[in-house]
Structure formats: C-alpha cells, structure tokens
Amino acid sequence: MSLAIKRSISELSTIPESPTIVPQIPTHRLYKRLRRNACKSSGTLTSILAYVNLLEDASSNEALQILLKITDSMHFDESEFPDAIRKLVEHFQREPESAVRVKILSLFADLATETGIDGQQLIDEVIKLLKAEQSAKVISQGLIVLEKIGKSFTPSVAYINQMVFFAKVKLFSPSHNVQRHAILLLGVFVLISDAEKESLELIGKYTDSPDARVRAQAFRSMLTLGDRGVQLPPSLYPRACASLTDDYECVRKEALNMVFELGVRHPEEMIKVQDSEQEVRLIDDAFGKVCSAICDLSMNIRTLAAELLGGMTMVSDEFLHQTLDKKLMSNMRKKRSLHERSAAHFASGEWSSGKKWADDAPKEVISADSVSLMASGACGALVQGLEDEFLEVRTASVNSMCKLALKNSLFAVTSLDFLVDMFNDEIEEVRLRAIYSLTAISRHIILREDQLETMLSSLEDYSVEVREGLHLMLGACKVSTKACLTLVVQKVLDVLLKYPEDRLSTFGCMQRVGQKHPEICMSITPQLLMDHPFFDSAERDVEDPAYVCVLIMLFNAAQHLPAMLSLFPETTIKHYAYLRDTMPNFVPRLAVGGDTKELNLIGSTGSRQFLETLLSNIQRAYSAPQARQALLKAAQDDLDRLAEIDPTFSGTANFTSVFFGAQLQMEQLQLATTGQSIKAPIKECLLQLIKKCLMLQNLFSNLTNDDQLLVKQMCLRASALNLVLIVKDRSQSALGPCQLLLHIASDASSFLQENTLLVADTFTSAILTKLASVGDPKPGRVYREILPIVQTAAPVVIPQINTNIKMCKARIIEPTESSYSAENVIKVTAGLIAAVPFVAELENLQQSQRQDLRLKVKYPDQNVHIIVPRKRDLKKVMTEQGESESQWRLRTKVLLSHGVWTEASTVEITICLSVKPNNELELCKPVKVHFAPKPVKRGL
C-alpha cells in the first residue's frame, strides 16, 4: 500500500510532456435503461424513419399528429436524419394542407436547435421548398425557420447571402406577414458591409408601409443592425420623428427607441428646428422628442419614454432643467435684434399716429410656439412622469431622474425637492425607489430643515423596508445646521421606541451620521449626553437602545475629530470600553485608556504566509500516513480559527478546511475497502463524506479551473468508495450509486476535454479508462473493475491558495435566543399556528441558488419541517452605492405548530440550501426558541 502511494506521488510530481487523452464516458448510458422502459410502457417508436414512413399513407389530420409525436420525442439516431429529411421534403411537396406544411417547416427548426443535424442542408431544403410555395402562411413560417436554423450554428458567408437574397425577394410579397418576417431575417443576417451600402436604406423604405406591423418591424430591424455594429446615419432621424405621432403603439415604441439611439450615437450633430432657421444639437432635440412622449396616451410608451430619459446624459443643461419646470423658459425662445424688428415694422408700412403712448414700440409678431427650440410637451416632462397615475411610469421617472442627477450636480440639487415629494407616494415600491435614488445622489446635496421634516415623517412607515431605506439615506446624506442634526437624532430615537426591531438598522444609521458630521456632533455632545457643566449627572443605562445610538454616533464622530474625547464624561469612557467589546462593527477604536494599537492581519502577508506554511508542512508529510492525518486534523482547527479572525481569507480557509475533512474521511473509508476495521461506523462516515463533497460543490464560488478539477476528482473518489462499500455490505441496492458514479465520471470527463491544459491524477485517469471500456455498466461489473484502483489510490493533491474563493453563509438576525428564552416562551393552543418573525442576511449567495433556499425547523421529537420561503421575501441588501452584489436579506415568518406538550421545549430554526432531495446544507448554526403548545381550554 505504501509503495503504491509513493509511486503515485512521484508520478503526480512529474509534468507530462504531452496532454493526456481523456476517455469519454457517454452520458446517454445513464438514462439508457430509463428510456427503454419508457418506450416499452408508452408503446412509441424510437426511430425517426419509423415515424416518417407513417406519413406516406396518412391523411392530413393523421400527418399532423405524427409530426407532433416527432416533436415530442427528439431523441433519434443522427444517421437516419438524411433519409428522414428527404422523405419529409417529399411529403411537403405533395401535402395539400398548409397547416401540415407549416408543421413540417417548424419540425426542421426544432431538429436544428435540439439535435446535431446539418444546418446548411436544412437551409438549402427550406429555400428550395419556399420558392415554389404560394401560401403566405407557409412562407412566413419558412422565414421564421430560416432565422432559427441560422442562429443554431454559424453559417458561412455563402449561406448568409443565400438567405438574405431570398428575404429581399420576399419583401415584394403582398402579404404583410411575409414582409415582416423578411425584414426580420434581413436585420439578423445581412452582412454589415452590405447593410451600410444598401440594405439599411432598403429596410428604411418600409417605415412608410401601410401596415403598422411592417413599419414597426422595419424600425426594429434597423435597431438590430445598429446593435450588430452598423453605423446608423443621422438621416434616419426625421423619419423616426415623423413616426412618433403614428396611430399604432407598436410603431411609436420602435420609433422612440430609434430617436433615442440616434441621439446617443450622434449627440453633436446639428439639425434645424422645424419652421425656423435655428439649429440645435441632435441629442437636445431627441431629448425633447422623448420628453413629449411622456404625454402619450399609452402607458407602455410613457414608461419607455421615462426610462430612456435616464440614458440621455449628454443633453444640455437648459434642456435638462426644463424637464422640472412646466413653464417655458424665456431663453428658449428666438430673439430678434432691434434692427430686424425695425426693418420688419418699416416693411409693413405702419407708422405711429402719436395719439397713443408707445404705440410705436417694437412688437414680436412671431408666435412663441412656432419658434420654440423645445416642444411644449418637454416642459415639466419629469414632473409629469412623477405625477402619472401608473406606478410603472412613476418608478421609471424616479430612476431616470436619479441617473441624470448622478451626471449633473446642479440638476441633483434642483431635483431634490421632487424626489422628497415622492416619499409620500401611495405605492411602497415607488417610495423605496425614491429613497434609494436620493441615497445614490447624496454626495451632491445638503439637506435643509424643511426637506428633513418631510423625510423624517416617513420614518413611521409601516413597511420595515421603507424604514431601513430611510436609515440608509439619512446616513448617506449631509445636513446643513445643528438644528437639522438634532431633528434627525430626535426623530430616529422616537421611531426606535415605536419599532424596537429596527435596532441594528438604526445603529448603522447613527454610525454613518457621526462619521459625516463630526463638527456638528461636537457642538451638541453635552446636550446629547445630558452632561451638566457643574453638577454630576446620573449614569445612564448602557443597555438602553436610545443611549447606545447616541454613543455610537458620538464615538464615530470622535474618530474623525479626536478633540471630542475631552467632552466625554468618565462614565461615557467606561461605556466605550463595553460597547467596543460587544459591538466592534459599530464602535471604532479610539485613543482612550491604555494601548491603542490594533492587531491587523493583512491578507497578502500574515494569513497567506500562514496558509503557505501549513500546506507545505502537509505536503512534506504525504509519505507518512499517520503524520499526514494528524496534520490534517490540526490544520482543520487552525483554518476554522483563521476564517473567524480574517474575513478576507474566510472563503479560502473554509474551502481548505472542508477539503481536508473530506480527505480524512476518504482515507478511513479506503481502509474499510481492504477489510480493515475503522473506529466510526461506515454509513456515518459515508454520509459525512457525501455532505462535505456537496459543500465543496455548492457553497463555494470564484473557483479556478484547478480548484474545480480537484472538487470533481474528490467527488469521483467519494462516489467510487460509496459504490464499493455498498456492494460489499449487500444490504441495499447498488444501482443508484452505480449510476451516480457514471454521471460524475461523465461530468469529469467532459470537464477535462473542455480544459485541455488540465491534467487529471492517476486515480481519475484509471477510473475513467476503466469505465469507458465497460460495455454494459452493471453495478457488479463496475465494482470488480474499480475495486483494485480504489484500494490502492494515492492521497488527493492538496489545493493551491486561491484568495478569491467566497463561501455562502448566513447570519440569523431575528429571532435571537435571548428574545425567546425560557422567560419569554411562545405559547399557542395545540394544533394552531404561531408565526415567528425571521430575518437573516446571506453572503455570496449565487443567483442560481435562490430557488434552493430553505428554512429547516426541528422539533424536540426529531420531526423536521422544510419550509420554502417566498421569492419576494429574499431581496438584495441596499448600500450607499446601490444593490449589493453578494449580500441578500431574507425577511419572512416561520410558522410553528405542534400537539400538546407538558412543558416548554426548544425548537431549532436554521437556514439551508437544498442541493439534492433530502440533502440540505446548513448555512449557519440553528437558533433555539422556546415553544409551548397548550391544551385547548374546555368551556363549562
């Protein structure tokens, strides 16, 4: 055994000169037996030719049913495809019913997208069939099929030109459906060089089509060409502006997108104002056109216009500020000189009679509306959007106002009052959007007292998300005077008394307020601490949340203004030491009492050096099994401690610790395969090993290709050990473990083939080679083939240091064990339901794992309930910079119910990930609450 291990380690240390050929494990083997059983039970055929041959003597209705069965199957032998396509084409040519011909073309598209059929052959066949086709419905379907086939692979230039030429021919069809799909095909496949020469102009002519759907598709295809890299010329702008008044919503929508796109692409292009010789920038005129669309009759157009305004950040300041004023600015009108006005008056032949005072004063004879550089609908456009009756328009207007304010500090100050007014909106989503927008532009603004009164009145909102959003906003903004800060502190403390569950959010708010206003905090320190200049005041309760809020704000202000420390009384200094130990994330380190030096572990030096030393010691002990196992056990404790004290290395340390734990379990089970006895039960060890493998697969992100290969090799070893031990035990079926091994082996084989630079270890190479050579992978045969490899396997290679690894974990904020202790028991009548508020924060949860989140409730009688939280209860945590990328907050209610208990007992609640059926990975330690179902009281 030791010789085999030494030999394997020496083999791993050498770098192969040529890449290893990875044997491929066919994935269809796993499901071969299942598919065969399904076919037997349903009585359906498995050959596509068998289906197609049935079409020869079938009627149109029967042919349609057969084609539907082919679509439902989609698991065929690819060698039969050429003959099947030929027979389908023959049936298409003799089929009189257009619906069947449409279905045949649709089947071609399904075959191209779901199988490995030759797409170029299908393109030839479809175009050949459509050339002789007369039905507009069939031709439209054929154009759709050509688009799907072309997207399923990368066609050559010759085939692209063939499809484009066919689409251009069909543009002259009298059917609007055929025209629409031909324009769609041109927008997707026409070559960029060809589009800039003639195709763009050809498509543009169809914006004047009598059919609205064709006009809309013409604009949409031009936008598609623009996304593909075609230069959209400014000459398209008048055509798009004319379509903004189209009778049909679909046309106005695409024209609005075109106006926006041209304005953003050519912002400095000068165009003439209608009915005037004046010129304006294209982006300014486009901005006015988009503003006018906010008055559209359609809610969808108004929403789109409000969204597009946020992307037009290059607009001039006078046009931008006009959106907040419903009166047309005087400087937006054309002014004529005195000479021009006198010349016009002389040409009119009118002279002053002298009977009326100033009757010869120059007058403007040009209407202001006719010479306005901005359409009247653009005046107050954003105000109009904020006052719209639909929440979609109001939300889009708030978002656009925020985007524009981020690029223009003067506009941010002007828009402040309008955003504050939105705090009183009736819809919670709009209020939240306004709060987060004001938080984002907080660096440009300073709040006045009248604005603060409106904001602080919203602090008593029933929605906890609104209150937390306001706490975040108040911490991000700056106030102007001492009276403003006093008003903020007093209102926040009053609301905390009403909503004590907002304690942590309030602490964070006061922490940021103190950091941003150190000078003002210093001026009100005696007032907040109630410190009399002559008399000693009573010591306040350090457990009072209101007093703690004040201390947190003052301590954070003192961090930036150390002179404040002289204003703190002696009791406050004592309370600082207590709060610094109990909540270090809210209270900073100050130069108060004793040593002020702080030990900081820097990830690039201390922690990394420790990890490198630890891994090198384990590497040197690889040849001695007992020393290696002792080092791995000690390393797990050290790594767990490192994860606690150094957050930057937390993911790396946890990943390495779990990896070492799986390796220890694997070495014990490897001894069991040789017949030796181990201390722990084999089933328990197998369960722990499988759990650790699932943790490596699902709880860690930002893994490199080398890390992923190590995880896959670890899972392959675990599945092989699982199969060997289950076959040896003979107490349960080995079919499931065998299929699991084949599935993991197939996954590892595919991964190695995709990443040719990676080299598998000797165990993985041997297992993949054996499994590839097994013709019929039955559990007994697979067991006999892999047994000697498993028994003589070398230890797993230790992972390299990857500081980017992040671990998914959770922290339960509510309930806490102190809030539902033995003195505060949840009492409910037996059989009824008690709702316990549950709040947790999750870090590094992937977007794909949201649907796997579960709440696990464990009762004292060992009954376990798994609860699926609602999707709307899980939201990203908001920060001053916007939504957090890796932090989520789950806010829901856990329902508890049970039969009668004689006394109160603890119920464990935790949050976990459901990675497999009956396999949940806990993300944190469970919290215990006391629960007491009481018997029903009987009446007299």
From TrEMBL:
User: Domain named Integrator complex subunit 4/Protein SIEL C-terminal Ig-like: which ranges?
Assistant: 812-936
Q: Which GO terms describe its biological process?
A: snRNA processing
- Key words of the record: Nucleus
Q: Which domain of life is it from?
A: Eukaryota
GO cellular component terms attached to this protein's record: integrator complex
Residues in INTS4 8 helical bundle domain copies = 608-802
Q: Where in the cell is it found?
A: Nucleus
Residue spans crossing the bilayer? none
Identify the Gene3D superfamilies for this entry.
Leucine-rich Repeat Variant
Protein's UniProt name: Integrator complex subunit 4
